[in-house]
Specification:
alpha+beta; Aminopeptidase; 31% helix; globular
């Protein structure tokens, strides 16, 4: 079995999401902020969550060596959210994204995890440009993307999606923020 990279920050472990995370992913995929800002994935059981992970995460991880990471707090091993690098259908390039359970939002975890994923994407996976998409009303996500050094580029619509999204891009000629370790 292939060993995929995991990452660590001062407070967090970022472990490739696996089918063992299905119960956690079921809660996250059905959290109010996921439904509002990312969309309903119609995952309503642990078995459906395992299938979602297998089809959406594991296939990309096997193909590219990176994908979605479950974000775990070191102190108590609680699963807080996810952060990752995604090869999204309808979006050219690699997309950085994140989502956390409501009780773990606004504590700096998303920034800490996303900064490490961004660093790994550039330094370890050789990604030269990163993009991110967010809904127009997700101001917290927009602020976090800007804090990570991504800049608003334009509005886009992904294939088969009605919503117009904001596209942020990391300009290659801009300095990379230091890693949070």
């Amino acid at each position: 079995m292939t060993q995929y990279k995991s990452f660590e920050t001062e407070r967090l472990l970022l472990i490739p999401t696996s089918e063992g995370d299905a119960a956690f992913m079921l809660r996250l995929l059905n959290s109010p902020s996921w439904i509002r800002y990312i969309g309903d994935r119609n995952v309503h059981s642990v078995e459906e969550a395992a299938t979602y992970i297998r089809n959406k995460v594991t296939t990309q991880l096997e193909r590219l060596g990176y994908a979605n990471y479950t974000v775990i707090r070191k102190t108590d091993k609680e699963k807080l959210g996810v952060c990752g690098l995604y090869d999204r259908e309808g979006l050219e390039g690699i997309d950085i994204g994140f989502a956390f359970l409501p009780q773990h939002e606004k504590q700096g975890y998303a920034f800490e995890a996303a900064l490490e994923v961004k660093r790994a994407g550039i330094e370890e996976f050789g990604i030269s440009q990163m993009k991110a998409i967010t809904s127009k009303d997700n101001v917290s996500s927009q602020r976090l993307l800007e804090k990570l050094g991504l800049k608003f580029s334009k509005t886009v619509q992904l294939s088969n999606e009605a919503e117009e999204l904001l596209l942020f891009e990391l300009r290659v000629d801009e300095p990379i923020l230091p890693s949070v370790k």
